[in-house]
Design brief:
With 340 residues, the chain is of the alpha/beta class. Helices cover 36% and strands 12% of the residues. The strands form two sheets. The protein has an eight-stranded parallel β-sheet with strand order 9-8-7-6-5-4-3-10. A two-stranded antiparallel ribbon has the order 1-2.
Amino acid sequence: MDHRTLGRTGVQVSPLCLGAMMFGAWGEPDHDAGIRIIHRALDAGINFIDTADVYSRGESEEIVGKALSGERRENVVLATKFHGAMGDDPNQAGNSRRWIVREVEASLQRLQTDWIDLYQVHRWDHWTDHEETLAALSDLVSQGKVRYIGSSTYPAAQIVKAQWMARERGLQRFVCEQPPYSLLARGIESDVLPTCQELGMGVIPWSPLGGGWLSGRWRKESADLTSHRASRIPQRYDVSVPANRAKLDAADALGRLADESGLSLVHMAVAFVIRHPAVTAAIIGPRTMEQLESQLGAADVELDAALLDRIDEIVPPGSTVNPTDAGWTNPALEAAARRR
């Protein structure tokens, strides 16, 4: 598998990054099964793994730590994230210095490692100043606990603001951004991707299969249009929601296009994401070995201009079929009192 440079760091990573969100109670509860999937991905040439503290409340990090124990750790670029709630205490979450310096120790212990290659802020929050977060992360880099820092699902304006703050205060800067990006969620093409290119940041998109909508199962003729995630996030999966009906129409059309092109929809979807010039690696998040095997070959798939033009006809560039899939909501619009 070829490698790409992560932003301007000089670190070489595979174009497929193994996402570990589905290892643990959220997906595959059998630790040994998760470890086998991780080892298979490494044997296939993937050298980049992404997890987060909040995934199954630390269980995902524990599984990754077990899988990488011993010599395997040295050859893996290991990424994790913080921000989500890890307890009932309101201070067991967020982007404050208080939480960062505490939670990094917990992640290091669960991952069974002395350092984290890429430590990412899982979400931007408007109540914590960028300087507070970046200063705490810079200290972790100085201490050798973290090699690089990154952001996830930041709007373009906040990506720029964080870079400005890092330069203004002489702090470590985010070397990459981890946004949602797929054939069904192309909104970042209009701002986040060109912003990252301008700033020399790597991009490692999550959910290239649109949360399973591009797995090939979501077709109009399918007898089962349900997901185990529907109960948690019905706004993204309940097909009675108009935006999800539109998403089903688009997924079906993309599936037919893949069939006509002699490709699996999975390969077409992942290949689409990693071929964008701003993208470093796509995060694939298999729950089973079968799902992993179905995605591994995507790095070798080439999409020609004619096929890309037909994709644009189904989902126009810069558009997201269901706005909920953008991954964040603007806090300025959350309360009516803020805009009226």
